[in-house]
Design brief:
With 242 residues, this protein is α/β, with parallel strands linked by helices. The chain is built from 7 helices and 10 strands. A hairpin with a 4-residue loop joins strand 5 and strand 6. 33% of the residues are buried.
């Protein structure tokens, strides 16, 4: 296994929000971004996958651990802060989810109707991965996995097996890219063991970026790991003791 440590990054802008483009430019098969509450890592991951769809037509998947966490209502709430007019250069004005689909579209306040619908993504729960085994997603190339380190500390049974089964169903034989995001920080996690990076996680400091290259049966695999800084202005509801 080959490892490279990159100097502490300046990914946060003056408002304390992250720009993940430099991380994605490292071209990892997996890009892991953890820590750093309220710095916009989820917001920017959404921007990145939607922008990729607009540029290339590559669809994306949004994945959560449990089916109860990825209902159409919650998915719509997740994407509600996305600046669709700006990302799509005015081609669409909103995004909506339903029946497993995520669509870019235009909403008219006059008619209260959606038009110009274009499926840019899909949403899936890890715990029901086997349900999608026979389904084809030929234009799906990018994946967001949210809260891969659970705040509760509770993972789903056989989570790693189910997650990689879902990845193989969605991506199959083409090259895909996965962004794993979490607010929680845990020095012990099945994800760290899976990616052979437990020692790196124990030693990482705020702002660090580590890149791992390792051999797998399918060839070399690159993993980018970033311990992200929190927003410059914190939430006053946290006591700070934890």
């Amino acid at each position: 296994m080959k490892q490279v440590k990159i100097a502490k990054s300046k990914l946060l802008n003056s408002t304390g929000h992250i720009n993940i483009d430099p991380l994605m430019d490292l071209d990892g098969d997996f890009t892991i971004i953890y820590g750093g509450r309220y710095n916009g890592k989820s917001y920017d991951a959404k921007r990145w996958v939607i922008n990729e769809f607009m540029k290339t037509g590559h669809q994306f998947a949004y994945i959560r651990r449990w089916d109860r966490d990825i209902t159409s209502t919650l998915v719509n709430q997740y994407f509600a802060d996305s600046d669709i007019p700006t990302i799509t250069n005015g081609e669409y004005n909103t995004i909506r989810a339903g029946k497993g689909l995520i669509e870019l579209c235009n909403y008219s306040f006059d008619t209260e109707r959606y038009s110009d619908k274009n499926v840019c993504g899909f949403y899936f729960p890890i715990n029901m991965a086997s349900r999608y085994a026979s389904t084809q997603y030929p234009n799906l190339y990018n994946i967001i996995v949210e809260e891969f380190i659970p705040i509760s500390g509770t993972y789903s049974p056989n989570e790693m097996e189910l997650m990689f089964h879902l990845f193989s169903t969605l991506i199959r034989e083409r090259r895909g890219r996965v962004i794993l995001i979490a607010n929680s920080i845990s020095r012990q996690s099945p994800y760290w063991e899976e990616f052979d990076c437990t020692e790196i996680i124990r030693e990482q400091e705020l702002g660090d970026i580590n890149v791992i290259e390792r051999d797998t049966k399918a060839g070399k695999q690159k993993i980018v790991i970033h311990y992200s800084r929190p927003a410059m202005t914190g939430n006053k509801l946290f006591s700070g003791k934890r």
